Structure formats: structure tokens, C-alpha cells
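Session log. Operator J.P. requested a structure for one protein chain; no other inputs attached. Running the standard single-chain path with C-alpha cell output.
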Amino acid sequence: MRFFTGLHSERLNQLDSMLIRKIDEQRGKREAVQQIRGFMTQFGWDSGLNLLDEIDGVKTDLRDAEALRSELEVTRLVEIHPTDELRVQLRQLGAQIAEISEALSESEQSIEEQKALRAELITAKIKAHRSQRASQILDGVNYHRCPQCGTDVANRASTEGICRLCCSDTHGSKETLPPMELEALRRDLNERIDQIADSIHRRSRELERSRSELTKKRGRKSALDQQLQTELARYDSAFVENIRDIERRIATLKERENSLLRLQKMPAAVDELERQAGSLQGDIDNLRSTVAEERARLKAADDKIDAIAAEFKRILMAVSFPGMYEDDYVQIDPRNWNPVIVHDDLKWGFWDTGSGGKKTAFNVCYALALHSAARAMGMPVPSILIIDSPTKNINDGENPELVRALYDEMYKLAAASTGQPVQLLLIDSHLVPPQDEIADFLQQRMAGEPDAPSLIPYYVGP
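Structure written below.
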């Protein structure tokens, strides 16, 4: 229809598209600016100065937190640890335990040596006593056979100072101690053995006391070790908890600082977005002026639209369309090309006509008005008009005037000799012949006649 009426213009379409795009772009930018500023206002960031103040506050809090962390670390290194006294006691106990353990080892070794010496002295005393008794018993005995191997030595010649059994020199072995000296030696050995036994007893008692003391000190050290672990856990847990709390606070402040630094760019970006939206207004005004100029150039299209509306009203009045009066007028909106009948304060159109028959008649009248106006105004509409079932749902027996008038208007359009000729193709269930003869009028029945059988043999109907 825009093309038929001359309202169509490629440049106008481009200008309209550009104008709509610019308006949408401007609306989108302004809505974005409004929403972003509304969001920032909720948090008090409606201006860059507020953000700067908040960033400065976060930086101050961050410096304070870092200073507090440094102070805690320095204090931990400088101050006396609550467990230092326990550590000193544990070191002393460890040294004492080591000394006692070493002393115990030495005492046990000394006792073992004394026991070995006592055993040797006892053995020596027994050997001396046995040797003396053997000498006393065997002194002057002559052996006929060797007591070792039983060899007969009775006939062996005896020599002065030589043993007849082993042939050893007997001069030295004959020198034996007097009985008094032997008894003194025996008593001396007994005293020495008793002294050693007394020393072993005393050392053993001392060793038991040392072992008891070692057990006590080890128990004391174990208790202090447990206490040290408890104190360390308690002290270190408090320190670690403080450090962790400060570290969390520092991390939070750093993240907030980074977020605020990123948000600091937002007001400038919003101002830039608003400036872009404002600059688009100039483009929109220029496009609107250009569109108005282009539409003014197409002012002739409005006359054609008015001619279609006037012809449509004439045809409606000619066919006595229900609801149409002389004082009514027709409006055609070039945005959707829907004709509207204005009656006082009421408006009605195609969807308000009621039955299907009236809707069909309404459309047929509109098509006839378009072709009739096109012939008069020289609009480039097609030269053929196909109308299918114009009297659909309209009974010519009940409303013959409307049917007759509608067909007269169609025949009038086809029979007009002025302007561009129109070929009219009517398809209907009933024929309403023209009242006046029309050149080139052809009639063809497609079904229900002997010479025009139906395509479906068993179908009976229009």
C-alpha cells in the first residue's frame, strides 16, 4: 500500500530505521544511566567524591591493620614467652637425668668390676688353701705310676733336685711359706673380700637410690613436657588466632580497596554514557528534520490516501452497508492501512462488523475503493482484481438490495472505460448478472450443470 500510494521511499525507510535505532540507543543509554545511578545511590556512591572518601577510609583501615600485624610479630619476638621458665626447668632436668644415667652406668660397671675382683680373691684363697693341703698330704709320697697317664716310673732313677714324675727342678718348689705367714695371708684375703663385699653392698644401695631419683626426675620431666605442650598450644593458638583474624581483615580490606578502585571508574563511565546519550539527541533531531522533509516531499501520498477513504465511504453508502451513515467519515492509518469508520465519538472497523458475511462485504468494498481510486489517481496497482465469494454468508433472498448493489459496484469498476482498465474475476456460488451489457463479459459454470460436472461426483452443493 505504501508503494501503491507513493508513500514508499527507500530513503524514507532508511531514515525511519536510523531514527528508530538512534531513539532506541538513546533510550537504552539513558535507562542504563538511571539504573546504574540508582544502584550506586543505594550504597552512597552517587558521586566520585563519596567513592574517594570511602577509598581513603579503607586505605587508613588497611594501614592500621598492617601496623597491628607488625606489632604482634615484633611483640612475639621480643616478649618473654610464658613457657620459657618451663623450658629452663626441662633443660635442667634433662642435664640431671643425663648425669644420673651416666653415674648409674659407671656405678653398675664399678660394681661388676668389684664383683669380679671379689670372685678372683675368693678363688685365689681357695687355690692357696687347696695347694697347702695338697702339699701337706702328698709330701714324701713316692709314685710308682704316673697319676696322669699311669706310666710305670718305679724303676726310674731319682736325681737330687729333680722330680721323678715330671723331671722338673724341685729346689724352688720346696720353698713354702711358714704356716703363720699362710694364715696371715688367708686373713688378709678374707678382709679384702669382706671390704669388697661391703663396698658392693653400699654401691648397690646407692645405685637403687639413684635409680629411684632417676625415675622421679623422669616423671617430673614427663609432666613438665606435657605442661609445656599445653602452654604452647594455648599461647600459640591465641597468637595464631589473632594473626589469622588480622590477616582476614587485611585481605577483606584489600579486596574492598580493589573493588572501590574499579568502581571509581564507574561514575566517569556513567557520565560518558550520559554524554553519549545527549549527543544522540542532535542526531535524532537532524533525522527527524530529514524525515519531515522527505515526508513533505511525499505529500501527494496523503491526497491518494484521502481519495481511497472517500471512495470507500461512497461505495459503503452505495451498497447501504449496515451501520454506515452520511455524516460518518473514513480514516486510513498509513501505519497499518486498516480503514476505520468514525461515527461521532465511536470508531469501528473490520473486526467490529459482526458476522462473516459483513466482514467479506467490507473487504470487497475496500478492494473496490482501492482499485477505483487507483484508476482515478494513476496509482500503480495491479490491473486484475480477483474476488472470491463476495456474497459469502449473505442470503440474496433476505438482503437482495445489498447483494445487487455490491455486484453493481463491481460491474461499474469493470465497465469503466476511462483510466487504467481493470480485469475483474468473480468467483461466487450464485450469479448476479449485470443490468447493463458489459463488453467482454464471460460467464462459466464450474459445477452443478450438465456440461460442467463436479470434480467430486458424489458431492452435491454450491
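Operator note: The CA atoms of residues 132 and 179 lie 9 Å apart.
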